[in-house]
Design goal:
Blueprint (H helix, E strand, L loop, with lengths): L1 H7 L4 E4 L6 H15 L4 E5 L2 H7 L3 E4 L6 H4 L8 E6 L2 H10 L3 E4 L15 H11 L4 E3 L8 H6 L4 E2 L2 H5 L4 H19 L1
Parallel strand pairs: 1-2, 2-3, 3-4, 4-5, 5-6, 6-7
C-alpha cells in the first residue's frame, strides 16, 4: 500500500480522503491505511471525526462544510489533532480560536481532486498565513513546480494529493516535493 511506502520514505503525516465512500467503506479503507502507516506516521482522517476516533487515528481534518472545530474539540481526547480548511483570514482566525491545531488553506491553485474549490491564490494564502500563529498548509493544485511559492507565501507546508498519488513513481515524487519544500524553507530564513 502506498501509505507504507511513503512512511518508509520519511512521510510522518498522511490524510485519508474518501469523499464519496459510504461510512463502512471509508472506515475499512482508513483502517488499512493506519495499519500500513504504522506507529511512526500520524494519520489524519478527512471530514469524519467519528471514524478517526473509532480507529484511534491521530486526528481529523474538518472541511468548510463539516462540523465546526468548536463542536468537535470537546468530544475528542487531549492530543487529538484537529485541522480545518479555511479560505480567508476571518475563517482562519475563527478556527484558531475554536482550537484548531493547523489549517489547510486553499484552493491555492486549480485542482482536479476537489469539486468545490474556490481559488484563493498565493495572495490569499499569504493573508491567511499572516492572520494566525498556527501552521498553515497550502492545499489544492500543489506541484513540484509551485510548492516553493507556497512556502514563500508564508505556509508551513503543503498537501500534494495529485503530485504524489497520481505520479508514475509516487515515492520519488514525494521525496522531490519534500526536498523542494525543505530548500524553500531554508531560503526563507
Amino acid at each position: 500500500m502506498l501509505a507504507g511506502e511513503l512512511v518508509r520514505a520519511g512521510c510522518s503525516m498522511l490524510q485519508v480522503r474518501a469523499k464519496q465512500a459510504p461510512s463502512k467503506e471509508f472506515f475499512d479503507f482508513a483502517s488499512r491505511v493506519l495499519e500500513a502507516a504504522g506507529p511512526d506516521c500520524r494519520v489524519i482522517i478527512n471530514d469524519r471525526f467519528d471514524i478517526a476516533l473509532a480507529l484511534g487515528a491521530a486526528g481529523v481534518h474538518l472541511g468548510v462544510d463539516d462540523l465546526p472545530v468548536a463542536a468537535v474539540r470537546p468530544c475528542v481526547p487531549a492530543g487529538f489533532i484537529i485541522g480545518a480548511t479555511c479560505r480567508d483570514p476571518d475563517t482562519a482566525r475563527r478556527a484558531a480560536r475554536e482550537g484548531a491545531d493547523y489549517l489547510g488553506a486553499g484552493a491555492v491553485f486549480p485542482t482536479g481532486s476537489k469539486e468545490d474549490t474556490r481559488l484563493i491564490g498565493l495572495q490569499g494564502l499569504a493573508a491567511i498565513a499572516s492572520a494566525v500563529r498556527l501552521p498553515v498548509y497550502g492545499i489544492a493544485g500543489i506541484t513540484l513546480d509551485n510548492c516553493a511559492g507556497v512556502v514563500r507565501a508564508g505556509a508551513y507546508g503543503c498537501a500534494g494529493i495529485t503530485a504524489v498519488a497520481a505520479a508514475a513513481d509516487p515515492v520519488e515524487s514525494y521525496r522531490r516535493l519534500e526536498d523542494a519544500l525543505e530548500l524553500a524553507s531554508r531560503l526563507q530564513t
